[in-house]
Write a structure and sequence with these properties.
By secondary structure, the protein is mostly helical. Helix content is 64%, strand content 0%.
Length: 403
């Protein structure tokens, strides 16, 4: 494929072709690029259409290594190796001769992996399937910004999209650049990080279906309330509006596009293998943080007794405050925070703290606040995220702990 910036040199029988503009007037529609559904790294924002010489590259988050560097993934292989060693030590019975903390960690790794394995396998399959949904359909699902229905649709899109909390930032910022309202972006971010299909299955395995459904419903409630408040503040002029906002094309019909897309799908053995392989590749970023979270959770078990754990992270005001501080400081993807939150529910007996750990890790995370500030060019808009969400989370957590 020749560059649009190369001058065409056609010396055919003394005929000289005039060099045209690099932007053709009638270009055929490009095939829709598949989104990396389960990858932590969402689809990179495309270069602006007004120039073919754009050199800007999409920024990657801390959990998304540069593919061009092909650097060794120390977090994945380091965490995976330690988890494997711990599992084998307990399986072989060797851990009984180790110090108490090592025995507890080994037993914890064995217990968590045996609980989560089926959810991880199903998650990889879902990742592969979601990766084949065109990005335009995901964008269309968000609907019109500035309305309650738009916030509701953004919340549902966030729940269904299978990305980790760092990867979701890239998609969320891209949605902002494509015209989504501030409320839609906030609802999307709050609903997405741990409500994905893969983490939902893992959470069901760790804390059970009732608590998982309660967490999902309550997080969606926080997302909707926060999104509506953001849009109201934008309408009042308290927060800046999105300069990229625009209406959806009148001729775009999601149902028609979806029907045409499904009509083109051909399920063959090769397609199924490709879906599975895409799921495995897409789950890499999920697994690296999930394994790291297993190590963190088992380390807490090994170095903090059950009594101390229940005291510091228990269903009390002190336990909730400690949980909020820990969620703000610990920079871990949503996959890594899930096992820790599960321990807060099961070991500390504090479901509210588990919910608060998951939610405040999203709303108070300094990476998220800084990315929001850089994208929206507004400190006020970025800082309003924890300002509006943390009080809601604290109230819900206190209610859950009192049940």
């Amino acid at each position: 494929m020749s560059s649009c910036c190369d001058s065409e040199k056609k010396e055919a029988a003394g005929q000289v072709e005039a060099a045209g503009s690099c932007h053709t007037s009638a270009a055929a529609p490009a095939a829709e690029a598949r989104t990396a559904g389960g990858s932590c790294c969402g689809p990179a924002a495309s270069a602006p259409a007004d120039s073919c010489h754009s050199g800007a590259s999409a920024a990657t988050s801390s959990c998304c290594p540069d593919d061009d560097k092909r650097s060794f993934d120390w977090l994945l292989w380091g965490s995976g190796s330690l988890v494997l060693v711990g599992y084998l030590l307990h399986l072989s019975g060797v851990d009984t001769s180790l110090p108490g903390w090592a025995h507890t960690m080994s037993h914890g790794v064995f217990e968590l992996l045996n609980t989560m394995w089926w959810g991880v396998l199903l998650a990889a399959l879902f990742v592969g399937l979601l990766g084949r949904i065109p990005q335009s359909m995901v964008t269309a699902v968000l609907g019109q910004g500035g309305s309650v229905m738009g916030v509701l649709r953004a919340t549902m899109a966030g729940v269904l999209l299978d990305l980790c909390s760092h990867g979701i930032l890239m998609v969320g910022m891209q949605l902002y650049n494509r015209g989504a309202s501030a409320g839609q972006v906030m609802a999307f971010l709050l609903a997405s990080p741990w409500n994905s299909l893969s983490l939902t299955l893992i959470l069901v395995a760790l804390i059970g279906l009732p608590w998982t459904l309660a967490f999902i419903a309550l997080s969606m409630l926080v997302a909707v309330i926060t999104g509506v408040l953001f849009d109201l503040l934008v309408k009042r002029g308290t927060l800046p509006a999105n300069p990229h906002s625009h209406d959806l094309p009148e001729d775009y019909h999601l149902g028609r596009e979806l029907k045409a897309y499904l009509a083109d799908v051909r399920w063959t053995p090769a397609t199924l293998l490709e879906v599975c392989w895409d799921g495995i590749k897409g789950s890499r970023m999920v697994l690296r943080w999930l394994l790291f979270g297993v190590l963190l959770a088992t380390a807490l078990r090994g170095f903090l007794s059950l009594e101390d754990f229940q005291t510091w992270f228990g269903p009390s005001l002190l336990g909730l405050l400690v949980t909020l501080v820990a969620a703000t400081i610990i920079e871990v993807c949503s996959e890594g925070s899930t096992p820790i939150a599960a321990d807060l529910v099961t070991r500390a007996g504090a479901p509210g703290n588990g919910f608060a750990f998951l939610m405040t890790g999203v709303s108070t995370d300094y990476t998220e606040v800084m990315v929001l500030k850089d994208t929206t060019r507004s400190w006020k808009l970025a800082l309003f995220l924890p300002l509006l969400t943390v009080p809601q989370v604290v109230v819900i957590a206190l209610i859950l702990n009192g049940l």
